[in-house]
Amino acid sequence: MVAFPLPDNAVEAGYRVIGFDSVGSTNIEAMKAAMAGNAGKIWYAALQQTEGRGRRGRAWESPYGNLAASLMIVPDAPSNSLAGLGFVAGVALNTALTRLMPAAAIRSGLDGADGVSDGGRARIALKWPNDVLADGAKLAGILLEAQKRPDGRTAIVIGIGVNVVAAPQGLPYPATSLADLGAPLDAPSVFEALAESWVECYQMWNNGSGTNRIIHRWRDNAAGIGAEVAVQRGDGVLRGIFETIDDAGHLIVRDDEGHRIAITAGDVHFGTTATLR
Q: What is the pLDDT of residues 88-105, one digit of tens each?
């Protein structure tokens, strides 16, 4: 077992953590806890996971020393508000990185290449729906999964992977790490900052009643509004202009004919990739 420290506000709020040196998947461990009737508010964190998964079942590689963390909670919230937890996790992770690297130009947005902070380009940005980019390369990912418990309640598992010491190699997209950015951090310290900011953001979400506040915070700092975007969906590629994130967390795209289309899921590309036809 590895010690992953919990901040005071997390301890006071009743959170717990189980740490691993290496594990198959922190999400699987959290799912097992949900099925066993665990009360929730429990983190599973590891320096390495060997069977990690990203969105749409894709493999999420995790070189040793990076952070793999999954939180299992059982919210007392309407089912239609649970998807907002992805934005809670994104804002919490952005907040944690801001505190860990205050000298970096950090701004929540859709594309690090488009973000502007203090007159210069933002280095770190939130990319809809669940990725974190740094200088346009993937730094972290977030995955939400729901699990029906034996008592009929719905548990939510929020998996977060952060490239702390190294980025995976051989990926079809650029990736980076905190070490590449010149941040001499380790996984336990990143986890502690994340666990602290999670408590604050989850309280703001307030079982769904604060969803608008969370999305407003995300959107107010978003970069890329007005830029071209391409969204790969099951029925093809939608191209247009990114207009906003609506109050439900949908990506709003205005197509070439002027129609405003709400996107609930898809692979999003900005910049040069979005303009290729």
A: 999 999 889 888 987 654
Q: Which amino acid belongs to residue 77?
A: A
The structural domains of the chain, with segments of one domain joined by +, span 8-220, 228-275
The secondary element (H helix, E strand) that includes residue 87 is: helix 85-100
Strands 131-134 and 251-254: unpaired
Whole-angstrom Cα Rg for the chain: 18
CATH label, 8-220, candidates 3.10.150.10, 3.30.930.10, 3.40.50.880, 3.50.50.60: 3.30.930.10
Closest to 162 (Cα-Cα) out of 173, 175, 171 = 175
Q: Quick one: how far is CA 85 from the chain centroid?
A: 10
The CATH-assigned architecture of domain 228-275 is Roll (2.30)
Q: How confident is the model at residue 84 (pLDDT cuts 50, 70, 90)?
A: very high
Q: What is the rounded CA–CA span in Å between residue 150 and residue 11? A: 27
| CA distance linking residue 161 with residue 52, whole number of Å | 9
Residue 41, C-beta contacts closer than 8 angstroms, at least 6 positions apart: 13, 14, 15, 16, 71, 72, 73
* The residue to which tokens 């996107």 are assigned: 263
Bridge partners (DSSP) listed for residue 20: 46
DSSP letter for each residue of 11-80? HHTT-EEEEESSBS-HHHHHHHHHHTT--S-EEEEES-BSS-B-GGG-B----TTSEEEEEEE---S-GG
Which of 126-140, 142-156, 216-230, 233-247 reaches the highest mean pLDDT? Answer: 142-156
Q: Which positions ≥6 away from 59 have C-beta within 8 Å?
A: 52, 53
The encoded tokens of residue 221 equal: 């700092």
